[in-house]
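User: Fold this, then the next.

Assistant: Folding the first:
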Amino acid sequence: MGKLFGVIGHPIRHSLSPLMHTAAFKKLGLDCEYAAFDVTEDDLKGELENFRKDFTGLNVTIPHKVSVIKYLDGLSEEASLIGAVNTVKFGEQALGYNTDGLGCLRSLAEAGVALKGKRVLILGAGGAARAIAFQLVKEKVAVTLTDKEMEKADNLAGDIRKKTRRKVKTTELDEESLRTAIDDADVLINATPAGMWPKVDETPINPKLLRDNIAVMDIVYNPVETKFIRLAKKQGCKTIDGVGMFVQQGAESLRIWLNVKPPVDVMRKAVVKELKKG
C-alpha cells in the first residue's frame, strides 16, 4: 500500500487539492493517494488521531488552520510566527507547517516580480494576509496593511512588530488614503475573498485607483481571472492570478512530506483545466 495524504476542512467539497496532488504523484511515478475529508470542529481531535496512524501528511484548510495547532507536537518557524498551520507531516511526531506565505512569494518570483527593496500593500488582514505579511517581513520587505475592519489590520501589524521587531504600516480603506498607499507601493496583493466565485462581480477596491507601474496579485483563484485582475490589466498593471500561490503552497507541502522536486507546471495545468470547466 502506498503513502496516504489528504486535506481536511469544513466544507471541503470543492477543494482542488486532490486533483492537483494526484496529478503530481502520477507525474513523479509515486504510489501515493490523496483525498479530501470533511471534518467538523467537534471531530477534529479524534480524526487527527486516526490520520496519525496511517497517513504521511495532511493539508489543513478553513476552519481548522488555528485550532489544529493544539493537537500537534511542534511547529515550524513560519507556522509559529503566523499562528496557523496548513500542512501537517506525520512521523514520530505530528509537525505543523505553513506554506501559504512562501507559496505567495514563489508565485510572485515565478511571474518575474522581484521583492528586494520593494514596498507591498496588502488588502485584507485575515488568515491568508497574515501568512503573506509575516513571510514578506521575514524577507525584509516593507509592508502596509489595510482592511475593512481597521482593528484587524492594526492588530496584525502589532503582532508582527511584537514577534519580529519590524515595523508594519497600516492605512485606512477610504479612497484618499488608498490612493496615497498605492502611490507608495510597488506591489499590491488582494488577500480578501472579494471576487471569488460565486461573487465574481466584486472587487476589493476601485481598480481606477491603480496605476500602470504597480504589480497586482489576486490570491483568489476561482475564477482564474478575477474581475479585479481583468480591470487591473486595463489600467496597464502587471497582473498575477491566484492559481500560482495555490499551486506553490501545495508544491511546498510535497517538498515537506516527500523531499521531492514538485512538478509545478503539471500541477498548475491540472488546476487551470478544472477551473476552466466551470
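Now the next one, as you asked:
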Amino acid sequence: MGIKSFQGQQIKQSRKINKNITVGDIMSRDLVTFSPEDSIHQVMSYFIKYKISGGPIVNKTGRLVGIISEADCMREISDSRYFNMPILDKSVKSFMSFPVETIQASTNIFDAASKFFKTSKRRFPVMDKGRLVGQISRKDIVICALKMKSQTWR
C-alpha cells in the first residue's frame, strides 16, 4: 500500500505581475499649501496644527512657486537670535526655497527612492502635466516598500 498525500488537489495559481508602483499611486493628495504672502508665523502655526514639516507654495493661479520647510523656519529663528530681534512677521516668499525640485507622478518608486538617496530632500512636490497633484516623502517610500510583495520588486 502506497502513501497517500493529504495535501489534496492543488490549484494552479496564476502569477499576476503587478504593474510598477508609481509615485502617483502612493503620494499624499490632500496638501496643506501656502501662499507667498502668508506670514512666517502663520506657516509655523500650520506646521504645528497639521503635524507637517513643510509644504508647497502656490501663487493665486495654483502654480508651484516654492517650497517651505521647518529648516527654512529654523533659519529665521536663528537669524532673529543672532540679531537679538523677535521673529518678524515677514512673508513666506522671503524664506521659501526655489526653484523647486519636483518629481513626476509617473516615476516608479525605485527611481524616486534613488532620487531621495542622492539628495538631502525630505519631500518632493509631485507634478503631472505641469500641475501640482501631490507630494511624496521619504516616509511614503519606506511604507510602500514594507507593503510590497516579492513579485513586485523589479
